[in-house]
Structure formats: C-alpha cells, structure tokens
Amino acid sequence: MKNLLSTFLVLIITYNTLSAQTNDSTKILDRFFMSSIQLGYINNRSEQLSAGLFIQASAEYRTPKGLFVRVNFDDFNSNYELRYPQGTINFLSGRVAFNELIGGLGYRYAYKKHNFLIALQSGIRFYGYPFIESSGSNLSVDTDNRTIGVFKYSIGYEYAIDIKSLVVVELFSSNVFEKKDFWEDHNGAFGFTVGINRTIF
Fold first, then answer.
1. What SS3 state is found at 86?
2. Could you report the per-residue pLDDT of 73-109, keeping only the tens digit for each?
3. I need a labelling partner for 68 at 20 to 30 A (CA). Which of 111, 114, 148, 165 fits?
C-alpha cells in the first residue's frame, strides 16, 4: 500500500512540475475528489459465485487536461457453491467477502455540466477460500486467506450538481490474472455503480 501511495504522489508532483500552469485559477487542492460510496451490482460470471451488491470507494486527483489518477477500495460479497472434493457430487456452500485495492489512470472529457470518463486500474483482490478440515470423525469448514491480481476497466458519466459535487454512473468489467479457486470456469466479472463524487477539500 505504501508503494501505491508513493506512486500516486509522485505522479501528482511530476505533473504539476511539468505543467507549471500558474494562470490556472483552480486551486490544486480542489483537484482532489472522493466518492461518497458508490453502490451497485456485480455479476461474477461464474457457476461457483452468485451475483451481489458492489460497494466502491475511491479517491482521485484530476489534472486540468482531463487526465486523472484514481485509487479504489472495492468491496462485495457472494454466495459460493463448490464441489468438494473436486469431481464428486458433494457441494460445499456458504458466503465469502472480497476486498480490492486497485489504482490506475484515466481520462475525463468535460462538456459543460457533463463529463465522460474511462479508467484502467490494476491491483490486488483479498478473499477467503473455504476448505474442509477433518479431526477424527468431525468435519469443520475453515477459510484460507488468499490474494489474486485483478485488472479493472471502467467507463462512466458524471453530471455536475454544482462546482464541487457530481452524480456519477459507471459501468465496469474486471478480470483476475489466474484461473483458480472461484474463477476456474471464468475469470471475468461485470457490473455498475451509482453515487456522488465531491471535492475532498
């Protein structure tokens, strides 16, 4: 996480050093935006995972030329159903939570009160993978904490309520880097979010 934040700050400092736009009337601090939680839906496109509620929290630094740097913390839960052991007709079912920490770059085109954007991000997904532990004749379900790389791309639309607040709707698609665990049959997902973005300062 420290490396991600360091990269974020270096990109901001480098941009402002190179651009040197002293005549820009907008304060640097006004270019930081944060979503007040965007809510939406995710379809995991997997036979092992159900669809469900998707929660997105993000922070952005927006440059005067439309480019922006974004860091996301995404959260969603799904019901799972796994064959256990593999190749049998026995099923293991329950509920699992996923958290993602991702960052990346994007571009926003502004026309009056309307903004259109695209963002490309990558990072890590945290989750627990269930397994059965046996002790004598007793069986219990335990969880192994795991991570997997994830890539996410988004397109969106914003409408400016005022100079500091915008209503935002985004469509997204994501892919994990490996076909394993819950994603052996399919490594992609898609969904949407709706929320409000505001300047942080």
1. coil
2. 999 999 998 876 555 557 788 999 999 999 999 999 9
3. 148
Q: Which of 78, 81, 86, 77 is nearest to 48 (CA)?
A: 81
Q: Is 16 helix (H, G, I), strand (E, B) or coil?
A: helix
CATH of range 30-199; options 3.40.50.2300, 3.30.460.10, 3.40.640.10, 2.40.160.20:
2.40.160.20
pTM score: 0.80
Helix or strand holding residue 141 (H, E): strand 138-160
- Phi/psi for 185 (5° steps) reads -90, -25
Tens of pLDDT, residues 31-74: 888 876 799 999 999 888 999 999 999 999 999 899 999 999 99
Structural domain boundaries in the chain = 30-199
Task: With CA atoms as reference, report the closest residue to 149 among 194, 104, 114.
Answer: 104
